Amino acid sequence: MFDFVPYLSFLTSGIGVLFICYLLVRFPRIPQVYLLGWIIFSLVFLEFYIYALTSKHIYQMLFILRTPNIIRIFLPVVLYWYVRQMLIPSKKVKAKHYLHFVFPVIMTIGVMPDLFLSATEKTTILDNYYFQNKYFISTPMGWIPAGFVQPASILFGIVYGVITLFLIWQTKHKMGTSYVHINKQSINWLNLLSGAVTIYFLLQFYQYINLFLNNSFDPPSQLIKCAIGISLFTYFITTPNVQENMDGCILPKEKEIPSIFEIQPELLVAMALDNEAIAFDEKMKTDQAYLSPDFDLATMAKLVNMPSAKLSKQIKMYYGISFAEYINRLRIHHFLLQREFFDQYTLETYIYQSGFANRSTFYTAFKKYVGVNPSFYLKEMCHSS
């Protein structure tokens, strides 16, 4: 009845690999993405291992025998680090936080000898497993006694999953309603991911107990794990708000979210009657040279026939902001002016037309100068209009 389960595990693994590639191509410069990548890789690898083991294809891949125990023991710690970095990106990592890795490292060292067994020895282990399913849990693993590695690593995962969910709950209450409102989708994603990993370990614990008591593998629980993995990937891909916050949740600012016209740089009061400043302001906003992704300080200096250093100081004098902020705010303002036509083309089209080289640069600039991500801002505009 459940003969298709190994192949469903293989399919889930394949989807997971594509998801990891998507993350690395789409967000290569964001550190948190690599932590998320490891979490997904761990789930993918564990599913692939189940496929290889239940289909007996593991005989052609002896090198992966025992490696799931190492992957599994690091998964909950990396999950905790990822969620912690996402909730408050500005929070620095201290030396004591590395103590989370002590138990996984000890377990890895203990299992290490089995990774270097010969092909004949690994084949013998598999033969004994297929003869009696309990073999894996009734024999020592490396330097670690029998019946310790699997339950210890699974319980470790369950405990860390609960701790991670508590961390999310604690941060929500500590940061307040404004933080939760702005980061609603991101917090939902972190809860979903942490909950999914925790359930994954609970199902593994159930499978372990079933193996221990009944000497059999439990296919239905494997089906649930596959469904959880596919649901995770689907939620992420279909929720733009989550992708806009890949570098972490937004910390609310004391000042209110600016209107579209407040985003556009305006001359300081002291410069409002200065003819040179007025002429400069009109030229920049009329020519719209900033809509070119290659437009930089040097290009702008040539445009106004002025040395770069002097131009930078002049922008600071006229607007009270840096050149980078000046250009990015002009581009963001132009992007928002096109909002009525967003249903005609993809969002990327308007991002590029506004002068941004890529999505990542746009999201970073938007959150820095506006204070929220684009999806949240546009949604709030719809509610207020």
UniProtKB/TrEMBL annotation:
Q: Where are the transmembrane segments?
A: 6-25, 32-52, 58-83, 95-112, 148-169, 189-209
User: Keyword Magnesium on this protein?
Assistant: no
Which UniProt keywords are given for this protein, alphabetically ordered? DNA-binding, Membrane, Transmembrane, Transmembrane helix
What residue stretches are annotated with the HTH araC/xylS-type domain?
281-380
Key word Electron transport present in the record? no
Determine the domain of life of the protein's source: Bacteria
InterPro entries xref list: HTH_AraC
- Known PANTHER family for this protein? ARAC-FAMILY TRANSCRIPTIONAL REGULATOR, HTH-TYPE TRANSCRIPTIONAL REGULATOR EXSA
| Name under which the protein is recorded | AraC family transcriptional regulator
Which organism is this entry from? Aquirufa originis
* Organism placement in taxonomy: Bacteria, Pseudomonadati, Bacteroidota, Cytophagia, Cytophagales
